[in-house]
Amino acid sequence: MKVSLATEMAPPFVLVAHFFIAGIIFLSLSGVALLMMSSDISGYIISSSLAAFSHLYLLGFVMMVIFGAMYQLLPVVLEAPIFSKDFAYVQFYMYIVGFSLMVSGFTFSDLHLLIPYGAVITYLSMLIFCFNVFITFYRLVNITLVSKFLLIGSIFLFISVTLGLLIGMSLGHGLLAIDIDAWVKAHIIGTLGGFVMMIVMGVAMVLIPMFSLSHGFEEKWIKAALYLQSFGVALSMISLIAGFSLFIKAVALVLMVAGIGCFIVQMVIIFKQRARKQNDYWAKNVIFALTCLVASVVACTLYFILDTPFMGMLAGVLFFFGFLLSFIVGHIYKILPFLIWYEKFSPLVGKQKVPLLHQMIHTKIADAQTWILFISIIVLCLGVIFQLAEVFFIGSVLLLISLVLVAFNAVFAFNYKIKE
Q1: Distance in angstroms (rounded) separating the CA atoms of residues 200 and 63
Q2: DSSP per residue over 3-52, as a string?
Q3: Measuring CA to CA, which residue among 150, 146, 6 is closest to residue 76?
Q4: Which residues pair with 300 in a beta bridge?
Q5: Cβ neighbours for 356, distance < 8 A, ≥ 6 positions apart
Q6: 70 vs 92: CA distance, rounded Å
Q7: What residues does 214 pair with on adjacent strands?
Q8: Where are any strands of DSSP class E within 258-363?
Q9: Phi-psi region of 218 (alpha: psi -120 to 50; beta: other; left: phi over 0)
Q10: CA 297/CA 291 separation, integer angstroms
Q11: DSSP 82
Q12: DSSP labels, 190-224
């Protein structure tokens, strides 16, 4: 499938920029929050500090970027415009208010009653997103493989945020008598394994072949990943909430591991057939991200088998920072300059000299940021493995430096001007 990042049906750049700018701001804030977490490296899964950080990072950065990318890529992939751009703006501002209340409630014990109110507002904002996506899909005649990933991911988002709302209401107001630990795990698996991973897999099948100039590869592995991952996540969530046997939970885990394994194999095939062999900061980030994804799956599997809290923390570091952060930042370096160039400079083509895309990123800063990010993740992992708070703090400082450099390059791209 040959696609471009921009079409006439794509939304205004200012809409996508809302999500990208907010995502980068919250990414920087989450880096500051990580500095306060050195004492929590044992990794108790439902501690308030971990809940505050994970929601700030996941909702503030990862989800923001995914929403922006979805609004940009859906019209490209589906060849149909988003149902309502106005709904997207409403979703953005409601989302900011809602998740800010949630993070405040998790961070400050005196404000814990804000959690259910923030959860409701966040839930409503995500319902708007899901409605926008579902109506857009409803008007389609043909649904492609990538479209299936995006649609299933959006369904998992709807289910997962509904669980999150019920958990928040039960904690704050005793709405339901539930097994909080099991429901939180189901919420996490649905959000990360269902929504985030399905969206990443689908988007990767568009962006990685595009940026690596890879063509003519088979898609049987990614097709297998679609079914294995979706069935595995669904079975895992149901087994946790319904209290099924350990055997059923193990089957669900095997399906998810197999699904991610098929995705990794597909990515390796695409990289082997790429025409662009240059290992720039994009390629380095993607390769490192996929390596960390494999390591996080191993750590997560050991966590469920051994029930060792710090192993869950290790899986989180590898997945959140090693995989998601590297994957997203690497693609920001490609996507953001293009969208800004398309908005600001494409009308000037043929009339005056316009910049090349790589000139809109400070390449030396990007290279330095990439290596600092890699080193910081290794140091963070060592801190978790050996339970050394000081080492974890050093890794957090290095990570924050890396995030500041990402923000610098984003500002550099947004403010780029043609040199006389």
Answers
A1: 11
A2: --S--TTSPPHHHHHHHHHHHHHHHHHHHHHHGGGGGGTT--TT-HHHHH
A3: 6
A4: none
A5: none
A6: 13
A7: 274
A8: none
A9: beta
A10: 10
A11: -
A12: IIIIIIIHHHHHHHHHHHHHHHHTB-S---HHHHH
As given in the structure block, the two tokens for residue 92 are 């953005």
Query: In the block, which residue shows the tokens 């599997």?
Result: 301
Cα 103 to Cα 168: distance, rounded to the nearest angstrom:
12
Closest residue by Cα to residue 380 from 310, 332, 323, 314: 314
- Contact (CB, 8 A) for 151 and 133: yes
d(CA 265, CA 225): 10
What does pTM read for this prediction? Answer: 0.92
Q: Quote the CA–CA distance of 61 and 78 in Å, as a whole number.
A: 25
Rg of the chain over Cα atoms, rounded to whole angstroms, equals 21
What's phi and psi for 349, nearest 5 deg? -60, 130
How many Cβ atoms from other residues are within 10 Å of residue 92's Cβ?
Answer: 20
Each residue's pLDDT, cut to its tens digit, for the chain (420 residues) gives 445 555 567 788 899 999 999 999 999 999 998 888 877 776 555 567 777 888 899 999 999 999 999 998 888 888 788 889 999 999 999 999 999 999 999 888 888 888 888 888 999 999 999 999 999 888 777 788 999 999 999 999 999 999 988 887 887 677 787 888 899 899 999 999 999 999 999 999 999 999 999 988 999 999 999 999 999 999 999 999 999 999 999 999 999 999 999 999 999 999 999 887 788 899 999 999 999 999 999 998 898 888 787 888 899 999 999 999 999 999 999 999 988 998 888 888 888 888 888 899 999 999 999 999 999 999 999 999 998 999 999 999 999 999 999 999 999 999 998 765
Instruction: Identify residue 277 by its one-letter amino acid code.
Output: K
Size (the chain), residues: 420
Euclidean distance between CA atoms 359 and 75, whole angstroms: 27
Distance CA 342, CA 357 (A): 10
Q: Are 186 and 234 in contact (CB under 8 A)?
A: no
Number of CB atoms found within 10 A of residue 352's CB? 8
SS3 291: helix
Q: Which long-range contacts (C-beta less than 8 Å, at least 24 apart) are formed by 379-386?
A: 380/317, 380/321, 381/314, 381/317, 381/318, 381/322, 383/38, 383/41, 384/41, 384/43, 384/310, 384/313, 384/314, 384/317, 385/310, 385/314
Task: For residue 390, give the amino acid letter.
Answer: E
Q: Which amino acid is at 387?
A: Q
Alpha helices per DSSP H over 62-196: 63-78, 85-107, 114-138, 145-173, 180-188
